[in-house]
Amino acid sequence: MIVHFEPASEEGIASVVRSAAAERVTLAIVGGGTRSGLGNPVRADRTLSTRRLSGIVTYNPAEMTMSALAGTPLAEVEAALAAKGQMLSFEPMDHRGILGTTGEPTIGGTFAANVSGPRRYVAGAARDSLLGVRFVNGRGELIKAGGRVMKNVTGLDLVKLMAGSYGTLGILTEVTFKVLPVPPAAATVVVEGLNDAQAAAVMAEAMAQPVEVSGAAHLPESVRGRFIDGALPEGAATVLRLEGLAASVEMRAEKLAAALSRFGSASKLDAGQTKALWAEIRDVKPYADGTARPLWRLSVPPSAGQQLVAALRLQTGVDAFYDWQGGLVWLRMEAEAEAELVRRYVRALGGGHATLVRADGEARARIPAFEPQAPAVAQLAERVRASFDPARIFNPGRLAAVA
Amino acid sequence: MPETIGFLKPRQAVLDRRGEIIADLADLLPEGCLISDERGLKPFETDAFLAYRRLPLAVVLPETTEQVAAVLKYCSRYGIPVVPRGAGTSLSGGAIPQEDAIVVGLSKMSRILDVDLFNRTATVQAGVTNLYISEAVGADGFFYAPDPSSQLACTIGGNIGMNSGGAHCLKYGVTTNNLLGVKMVLFDGTVIELGGKALDAPGYDLLGLVCGSEGQLGIVTEATVRLIAKPEGARPVLFGFAASEAAGSCVADIIGSGIIPVAIEFMDKPAIEICEAFAHAGYPLDVEALLIVEVEGSEAEMEAMLQGIIEIARRHGVVTIKESQSALEAALIWKGRKSAFGATGRVADYICMDGTVPLSQLSHVLRRTGEIVASYGLRVANVFHAGDGNMHPLILYNINDPADAARAEAAGNDILKLCVDAGGCLTGEHGVGIEKRDLMHHQYNKADLDQQMAVRAAFDPQWLLNPSKVFPLEGRPQA
Ligand SMILES: Cc1cc2nc3c(=O)[nH]c(=O)nc-3n(C[C@H](O)[C@H](O)[C@H](O)COP(=O)(O)OP(=O)(O)OC[C@H]3O[C@@H](n4cnc5c(N)ncnc54)[C@H](O)[C@@H]3O)c2cc1C
Ligand SMILES: Cc1cc2nc3c(=O)[nH]c(=O)nc-3n(C[C@H](O)[C@H](O)[C@H](O)COP(=O)(O)OP(=O)(O)OC[C@H]3O[C@@H](n4cnc5c(N)ncnc54)[C@H](O)[C@@H]3O)c2cc1C
User: Any chain A CB within 8 A of the CB of B432?
Assistant: First the structure.
């Protein structure tokens, strides 16, 4: 039977880890468990949950920083921020829809997986918001890195390392991050009826304008109807988000629509529709379909996204839509995951990484979830890991083929 | 002056082989890429932390990544320390060599390799200067955001080494937030690539780790950076205050109100006088403190933002508000600010502190800084990136007076401890170098530092890359 630890303090976590390290007992680290389907399956002797390490430690709206214990539900963090008109700028997605999981995502899991949404392309990823961490390493030592100030180059940036390490370097106990004011107004310019290649050009053009686009996505005809209850205009929709002061959003929207008028007719979504639409793009609504059909998340140079999908279409059945100016492709396969094909095409079209976010158990057991790294980088990453967790007790297998 | 900061003892075995080593390096490199005579080595003996100097064993100036790899492989095989160097503008002594070290200078690798406007990226060699990138893409309406005041001289490699910032980083972030990828050479000569034009590579964020690692993890030879569309317009506005504390709390309130300008820079009276005498920027001379607040966007947007900022400034008793009326005036305002260190250097020797504090502590730390420096019988000028709490007290002293220099160093240490105790850190953008190395214990405990050193050792088990820097010399793990 799997023994489950739920320490309620940093010291409690440290002591579990110390005895686990001494006995070479491996630990699966769980936050809310909402992304436990993500990454390679973990085979561990015991499970350690951060569930009881919960609560906001300090929140200073005037300094735009918050510290929270790692097991704090993301929803609690977001509600506290919203009450003061602030938000997480990186728009963490909710994986429960596409993965069909339940439970509460935690702030620690969000940073451990470097979860970021549409605004990532202009405002940075979760890792860019993370200012400081406390964690327990594989020796059971409590380590702090970073702090609560915006700029800090004092020593090596272990904060960045912890972000996206999926619990393989240490167990985060507390995270300190910066937050941003919620923009008072928002609107979305919709350019209608473009094919994927035209859309890529339009999004690049939009990003080159001095109008501060904060979201650039392309929703082909096959998925368009599944967003905001079918309220987007007929045909494919290329959507560009603008945020800021109300008067400024108004003006920038006009300017942007004028600059893009030669590509197709444009319409505009109001603040309410904008909010709903971008939340659905963030959470990959069209593929939150209750199936286990293979779902890939491809991060490539924006110019390569639509080329990649066009090339794959000639080989197999796929459906796709684009975020991050076309550089983030959500690709759903009709049948098999076809990892070899997908990864070969990514390499051929300028490089990037294909992450298998969803698939049935058989495929997940066979296919490394993360893009394999170059051997020299993989060896280096392994040495880095050993410097945190020499006995390799944390999340064995999670990053396999990566680290 | 008597040196209070130590360097590692030179390795006698390396010094004894000097002739051989130079001959071997000559074989590895093309003509004109090796410096070994004393006169030629002199310009490399220090950086902008002028109080310390060490003549290196030799300087190499490779032209390609392969040559960098060949040199590192050689040095790792024979146990020779290496100090990477860009333009040598480090303010913390990060690029100061040591007697047994080979300096690897990137100055010959100064080409822009690729500008990709569709994907908004530029790929450049590490020796390209910061400003050169913005100049190269300016005509197309783009720029590279991080803008250290030294941007005319400093290199991208050095910016990555120090995770450098600048006045406009309040809105756009520092180097690490604008860096997409690097090609780098590990100490054993292995060439690796991290990141690239596709965002958020899976696996550990080694790119984020390398940024700010002060030349201790490898030598960066190429970098891919993010380009940003230039705003429609930008306007700096001067706000004069009768007291530094008022200016400090005004900054905290602007940020707290949710308005994020592109830049909020602070100058106190001594700094205003020094910069005005140098740049004739039109700074008010009858105030105790000045904020330069820059907003950007269309006319109407700038107007709307300024209204909000002016309202807040009034609540803090602003005495002068001066908007730049032309591009020329705006340029002069920034010229004055960006030449602050150079201008100060004309009136006195100085050391520049770089602690960062939470905004709520700004006024307190400013006041205490003044008291500390006065208690040592010295003067201070404050000119810094207020919007992100990154303070730069310039402690003025006479480099030729040993007692004065020792007092300046001591005052600086007290100020940095003050920053840490106020919830901040030792350095926001200039790096630890040798300058703050022995203060690291004040910010981190042993376990914290041991973890950082263990990570460092994963890259350079022999501790030969820029070895006298960042980590206290005692207590380092043995290879
Ligand atoms: C293969 C894969 C693909 C992914 N793809 C995407 C994607 O496309 N887009 C996106 O935005 N996000 C993605 N994620 C991130 C993921 O959704 C996050 O795991 C989620 O935010 C976690 O919240 P949770 O609290 O439910 O964490 P859990 O599901 O419990 O944990 C998530 C991960 O973080 C670790 N973890 C949790 N808490 C801690 C802690 N306190 N300290 C250290 N480690 C901890 C866990 O071990 C686990 O590896 C992906 C993750 C994986 C593995
Ligand atoms: C007048 C003046 C104003 C300044 N203003 C600012 C400012 O506004 N903001 C700011 O952040 N800094 C500022 N600085 C500090 C300095 O300019 C920055 O730290 C700069 O990034 C250093 O770049 P460099 O090319 O001169 O690097 P160097 O000083 O040569 O080296 C800096 C560090 O990086 C390492 N390094 C250099 N190149 C490489 C490489 N290719 N690979 C690996 N490591 C490398 C070195 O070993 C060293 O540790 C200022 C300095 C001066 C003199």
Answer: yes
State both tokens at A129.
């918001």
Both structure tokens of B205: 């964020």
Atom number, ligand 2, closest to the C-alpha of residue B220: 42
CA B114/CA B96 separation, integer angstroms: 31
* Element of type H or E holding B132: helix B130-138
Which architecture characterizes domain A1-182+372-403 according to CATH? 2-Layer Sandwich (3.30)
Compute, in angstroms, the gap from residue A172 CA to the centroid of ligand 1: 12
Give me the CATH topology for the region A287-366. Answer: Alpha-Beta Plaits (3.30.70)
The answer to whether the A185-282 and A287-366 domains have the same CATH topology is yes
Tell me the residue ranges of DSSP E strands in B74-172: 82-85, 102-105, 112-116, 121-125, 142-143
A interface test, pick of B199, B225, B250, B443 with most A CB neighbours within 10 Å: B199
What torsion do the CA atoms of A205, A209, A212, A218 make, to the nearest 10 degrees?
Answer: -10
Which of B67, B150, B163, B221 gets mutated to test ligand 2 (max ligand atoms within 8 A of its CB)?
B150
- B470 in contact with A, Cβ within 8 Å: yes
| Residues in chain A closer than 8 A to B357 (CB atoms) | 149
b/e per residue B418-431 (b: at least 16 CB within 10 A):
bbbebbbbbbbbbb
Smallest CA separation from ligand 1 atom 1, residue: A39
- What ipTM does this complex have? 0.96
In a mutagenesis test of the B interface, which of A156, A172, A382 is the best target, namely the one with the most B β-carbons within 10 Å?
A156
For range A112-130, the mean pLDDT? 95
Task: Report which protein residue has its CA nearest ligand 1's atom 44.
Answer: A167
Cα–Cα distance measured from residue A120 to residue B260, given in angstroms and rounded to the nearest whole number: 18
| Domain extents in chain A | 1-182+372-403, 185-282, 287-366
Residue A198 in contact with partner chain B when CB distance is under 8 A: no
pLDDT bracket for residue B475 (50, 70, 90): confident
Express as a percent the part of chain B with pLDDT over 70: 99
Q: Flag whether the pTM goes above 0.90.
A: yes
Q: In terms of CA atoms, which chain B residue is nearest residue A206? A: B229
**Which domains are seen in chain B, by residue range?**
12-105 (3.30.43.10), 112-229 (3.30.465.10), 234-340 (3.30.70.2190), 348-421 (3.30.70.2740)
Q: Mind listing the pLDDT tens digit for each residue in A46-68?
A: 999 999 999 999 998 988 999 99
Ramachandran region, residue B111 (left: φ > 0; alpha: ψ -120 to 50; beta: rest): beta
Q: Which of A61, A152, A161 sits opposite B428 (nearest CB)?
A: A152
Give the Cα separation of A91 and A323 in Å (integer).
Answer: 13
Interchain CB contact of A375 with B (< 8 Å)? no
Nearest-Å Rg of the Cα atoms of chain A is 21
A245 Cα distance to chain centroid: 27
CATH of A185-282, one of 3.30.70.2190, 2.60.40.1220, 1.20.1090.10, 2.40.10.10: 3.30.70.2190
**Residues B399-456: pLDDT tens digits?**
999 999 999 999 999 999 999 999 999 999 999 999 999 999 999 999 999 999 999 9
Shortest-distance ligand to the CA of residue A170: 1
B314-327 per-position pLDDT tens digit: 999 999 999 988 98
List the 132-151 stretch of B: residues with Cβ below 8 A of A.
141-142
Q: Which ligand is nearest to the CA of B334?
A: 2
Degrees, nearest 5: CA angle A259-A262-A264 = 105
pLDDT of A214-236, one tens digit each?
A: 999 999 999 999 999 999 999 99
Distance (Å, whole) CA B457 – CA A155: 14
- Specify whether the CB–CB gap between B419 and B425 falls below 8 A: yes
